[in-house]
Design a protein that fits this description.
With about 625 residues, this protein is an alpha+beta fold. It is about 45% helix and about 25% strand. The chain has five domains: about 140 residues, Rossmann fold; about 110 residues, PAS domain (Beta-Lactamase); about 110 residues, 2-Layer Sandwich (Beta-Lactamase), CATH 3.30.450; about 60 residues, Signal transduction histidine kinase, dimerisation/phosphotransfer (DHp) domain (Helix Hairpins, Orthogonal Bundle); about 150 residues, Heat Shock Protein 90, CATH 3.30.565.10. The longest helix is centred in the C-terminal third of the chain and has 41 residues.
Length: about 625
Amino acid sequence: MTDGTATSHDAPGSVRVLHVDDDPDFAELAATLLERADDRIAVEVATSAREGLSRLAADDVDCVVSDYDMPGMDGIAFLEAVRAEYPDLPFVLFTGKGSEEVASEAFSAGATDYLRKGSGTERYELLANRVRNAVEAHRSRRMLRERTRRLETLISNLPGVVYRCRNDPGWPMETVEGEVEAITGYTAAELARGDVTWGEEVLHPDDREPIWETVQNELDADGTFEVTYRIHTRDGATKWMWERGRGVFEDDDADEPVALEGFITDITDRKEREQELERRTEELEALTTRLEEQYRYLFEESPVMAVVTRVDDGRPIVEDCNRRFVETLGYERDAVVGEELAQFYTADSRRQLLQEGGYERALSGEFLREDRELMTADGETVEALLRAVPRHDAGDEIVGTLALYVDVSERKELEREKERLQEFASIVSHDLRNPLNVAQGCTELAREDCESEHLDTAIDAHERMGALIEDLLTLARSGDDIDELVSVDLAPLVEDCWTNAVTDDATLVVETERAIRADRSRLRQLVENLVVNSVEHGSTGSRMESDDAIEHGGDDVTVTIGELDDGFYVADDGPGIPESMRDDVFDAGYSMSDEGTGFGLRIVEQVADAHGWTISVTDSADDGARFEIRGVEFLS
């Protein structure tokens, strides 16, 4: 036997018996009669106590039946040897020489039962019954011990408290085991003795009445309950508990339980995680609401037309659109939402959308920017620049697009107008230059043949016409266009412009060494025109203010290029520009000199606008004119 107790490995309910008797014939007969009395019993025979001990060590046995009077080692000595190794093994002393003294000695040594031998089969039926009772009692005790051991192991390893308490609002504990002190700070003994009452001193005051009502209601329903509540620990901390239990009733007909049995565990960490999750969920929901409101505001107030589409059999259906879209096209929103997007396109754009794969490219994310023509409710065409991107659902599936339309009708018209203007300028340049060149040549030839002041006047007029043509072409061709912005050192560029300009006896002063970010060629146009303007108007000898002529002191004008906090200026010491004329000097064709074209300062303003700069005119320190260019980005 391996564990000190006999355990049967045969069929359930069978009993293996070791019969020890020094008379082999009697032992075999007794075995036969015992097995016949109860077919669940299987008997093995040993003819001496020592052989019996050997059998017990080698085989599993449920019960020992032994004679008393045996040579070498009698039944009592054999019993004592068995008890030394197998304290709980059922042992029946079955002897023919029994007496009260032997029986008393046997029970004192640990015998399970005692029976005297006798004739007749009924004696063996009695023996079989005694063996069966002894084995069943032994098995029951062993099973109870095992269950108790398992329960104790379970309780000791449970993350909580196992209890039995009376079913009244105080819930006084009758028994309590487990992690009592770790959870509550109170010992199990304090709770079991009643020194501390669960319902009055441990349970949170705000939860006492609600939990009592919940438990009673659930007990009335099916005799069980499950609740979550708070407790106050000995040190004043608040913890969350989860409890499941059942009512204990005196009998099946009882209405009220006499006690409650259940399990309590600490769920504070889980509850705090749940509360944190709830808090974060609320924050996320609030954030989502704000984002949805912001999205809706941005969607509705967007400066461009916006349309949300969904895919329906490969075709775009308008699911939503903003106010600018419906207002631009002249529709009510209800007339747009739910309709095919193509319905609001011109025929050419509809073909691009559906037949040439525009919508498919938008769904795939390959769509960049393309021109589209929208059709208003009145049949007018709105030219637009389209940017479309895929729209995904919660499962990251593409369900449609977000399309943004920038109304470029006005810009397109300006571009077309500019193209027409440039074409006109080219025609004018070609058609005027040739006859002008012929006129200039003929006038020069005529002056070689004769002297006449009228020929000098004609030559001056031809030169003025040439200057007008050049300035007109500059205005028409350049416009607001600028090329790449680079770092330009201002001083060298000014000096180069001064060299190329007709400056006569004028003087240049450069008071800056800064570099600015600009289109070099357009900046040159601005500087040259300002320099020429200062030289021409600063040394003319007079200026007009109302109807009076104001004389200038001489022809040696000084032009100064200086630095501002956010730009630069061009100033001269000439007669200046009267304040009443300063609003007009940048108009095309306006000139304070009979010899000027009236386009130079217009070109200057045009270049400044193209860069995003501002230009203004004021008095210089020497009472001349000062042009200030601001909004410039310095690079050094």
